Amino acid sequence: MRIFAFLIFLCTNLFAQDTWLKLGIEKAGVYKIDQDFIKKYAPHLQNLSLEELTIMGGHPKALPQKNSDKRIVDWEIIHTQIIEVNGQAQLFFFAEDPHEGSLNPYSKSNFYFLGKGEIKKIPVVTSKNSGQILTHLGFQQRYEKDEVNLLQSGRLWLGELFKDQFTLPAPALHFQSDYQITLSLYPMGISRQFIEFTFGTQVKRDTLRGAPYHPNDATARYHRISNEHRYTFFGTPSELKMKLSAESVGNVGVYLDYWEVKYQKLLKGAGEWIFERTPIPPVLQWDNNALKVWQIGETVKELDWDANNLIHPENRDSRIVAFSPLDIQYPLYAGKVIKPSILNLPVPELLIVYPRAFQREVDRYISFKKENENIDLIAVDVEDIYLTFSSGKVDPTAIRDFCRHLYRKDPERFSSVLLIGDATYDYRNLKNADYVNLETMIPTYESRESLEPIYSYSSDDYFGFLEDHEGDWPEGRSINNIWFSEDARDHTLDISVGRIPARNLTELSYYVDKYMQRKPGTWMNKLSFIADNRDYNLHQQDAEDLERRALENYPGFNTEKLLLDDFPIEDGISPKANARLHEMINQGSLVLTYIGHGSSEAWTNEKLLHLSDISKLKNSGKLPIWLTATCEFGRFDQPGQVSGAEYVLLSPQRGGIALLTTTRPVYSSTNQAINRAFFQYLPTSRTLGEAFRKTKNASVRGEVNRNFSLLGDPTLPLPYFLPEKNELLPDLMQGGEQHNLAGAIEQIQNGEMSVQIMDTPIPAKTIGNFPDSPAFNYEIRSQALVEGRFEIKDFKVSTPFIAPNPQQNGKTRALFQWTNGQEIYFSYKSISLTKLDTTFSSSGPELSAALEDNKGLIWYIRDQYGIKPDFHLEINGEKIHHFTFVPTKGFQEGILLLPLSELKNGKQSSTLIASNIYNITAQNTFEYEIKREALKIQSSVVYPNPVKDFVRIKVKHNRVGENLLGTFQLLNEKGQILQSTELECMECLETWDSEFQLENLSTKGQKLFLQWTLKSAVDGSSEKLGRPLFFWK
């Protein structure tokens, strides 16, 4: 067990006395343990007698979803019996498989645990009861194959597909009477099909309804699977033959879900048999009294033979198991475990659930949060949760139950859970995908529905339903292909839930780095809205509506919009819109909201944003929260595909810090309900998770918004959005007049305040590129007239300044920001601003430039009246967007920085055009030359070496501040590449510290060599080095 409430590292001896053998059970029945098994798998127990060994187990089946339903928590002692077989003592026990009716959707095996401890012997019952003597009992066999999940969503897996004929056999060993066969079919295709059943002399015909399909309906069933058709036949054992025909020859056929037989079975023969629960306590007569007969109820009892070779069961709520000890098999060996003790952990504010393989990065993340956010948290290995709540089986309800355990102890304190790890709709890896590593995954909740794209979903909300009446989470159902929702029985989140869907340590390290390197600034007050075109301006109108509502909820936000119809469309794409989007993202914003059509890989039909664009972003340190209520952009349960949201979250030093996003197709109406709720709660929430929880609870719409998920840390702190600071500025100002910025700042004694005075709203109109996207009127509210930095001294600010000149008279806002190092504060002042009517004489700003080592190109800007933060920067005639403006003294002075990574080799010419508050411009040109030495690796360290599963590489180089590419390769002694990984370092420090994960390689008898190549993204200069690797045996 690994718990990180405190950073303590313990070495664990896996052969200590508290070690338990994990035993896998795939089929219910009787199993044995003997000394041969112990010597092979548990040498630390071989000096103990079987009388000193115990079998323990937890909840044997899939956990019940409803919180109030009964379940087993932790382990219970399992009844055992020692029987001598061929002169050797053997330990026997009855074990349940994980299935209950249908196959367990989460696990192929149930688990029990063998170790030293208290034992419970199976009692022998010799009681007698009178009644009818039976020579048969009810017997059932179910046949089910999980082969295909048609939408790769939900828990319904189907079996064989047949399009012509199919025959089911007639298993009926020792048949007595009452033969019954039941089967479940799912027809596919839009056409009606006709099926004929032949069962013995019975012939039955039926019509299978097709699934309706409308080519223009984006929510139609992708594979057009109709509802379930279930059939039952009675008679004597016979093959069941099925024959299909259809109205058309198109995409038709039938999937078999399962089939099962029931009949009365004679009590005869050897082997092992499990019989159904008996309706009344009968008297049983077998033809073989050498069998052991156990009664399986709440406890296990052995039924002894009476003098007449009869068996007398005690009650009706039990199964009967008959077996010969000679025929019993061993359980499967499934490893060794230490029994966890997580039930005694203190209640934290934040619970982190993670896979053991991610321990190192989780440790680093915890250290940062404790030191910088003062949050009380614990981190628990997900395997320990499974061991405690689901007897070692993967089961999302186990995680929910542990959250509920903490919540019930202290509901006021426990507020958030963070899941670290990717997920998959294929819990059991039935597709045998070699790229899936179930040991590094944290399961999500998959819906029962699997055939309706809109109503099938995955959701982490499930882990936040902690009240007694919750958990079952009812879904609607499709009847004759018409959906009937269950929104009246929706649940609400009691805690915030988030996920970092990292597939490996490298991806997790990228996220941890980004989280630690996020830089506060005025950008954290900005809301960016991006809207798709067409649909008669629906999405653009929604963006305008959201901006208006956000400002009603908090007028101190700085807002900007990108409306796709504002830009020309060229050959089906819009390069200018794409460039503007990159500029918006790179400049930074607190929330980046997209409204419109999309997929898991892109936004809009014009590919406004594609996966390839994410890799080109340059917004390190200014990472927004992405709000993307568009179809499937945030899907994280399909390991073979990296969604746009996963790429945004897990790309190094770029993208986003969190996403509120959708994992399945969605409706625009419910998207807008979520968007509106989010901006209602954003200004008053202390963490992103708090805002998300309130958003979900206020916008519940049945199944259709359950797939809206938080990817990222729910305890990500949000800025403080303070009430209006009326005293800082006068209510009315005229351009060119001198005023004072003066007032009290309670949160910080000495420091700096950033101030922006925004221009009055400017009317604008889109182009109107399409008939269903006519010209659309809207307002621009994003233009700042001035941006400056002012000193706070002794909790006060007092500075004179000259009011800027707006484009037109009207109401606007001044925006304020300050920080005490940890918390970030924003406030505002509503003002009326009027234009200076007379022409003002000024020479414009003073401009000068310099090239500084390890920083880049710096333009120094000064104007006695104030600088307007609207710049035009060129290098060699090409407009540059990726620069940063930093005010340094009031509104009068600032610098414009172009990082070294943006500067090419050779002689260059940079031109800057800037203006002051009176819109009087100045221009200057700076000639410079970049001479870079060839990239040189100055030193390198490889550790640990000898290695086991990873190696860290520290490389010191001479290209500080540049973007570097690293290729790391593992070679054998023949020079063959066994593994290769490419990494990036954005605006790299002098030493690049990276990690190389070693895959499951056979290293026995091999000499391996680690080789790495560093390459500059600016000029392509590179160097290669390598080291031999040594492996622990």
From TrEMBL:
Protein name in the entry: Gingipain domain-containing protein
Top-level taxon: Bacteria
GO biological process, one term: proteolysis
Residues in Gingipain domain copies: 351-718
Keyword Signal applies: yes
GO molecular function: cysteine-type peptidase activity
Keyword list, A-Z: Signal
Keyword Oxidoreductase: no
SUPFAM superfamilies: Caspase-like
Signal peptide: 1-16
Organism in which the protein naturally occurs: Leadbetterella byssophila (strain DSM 17132 / JCM 16389 / KACC 11308 / NBRC 106382 / 4M15)
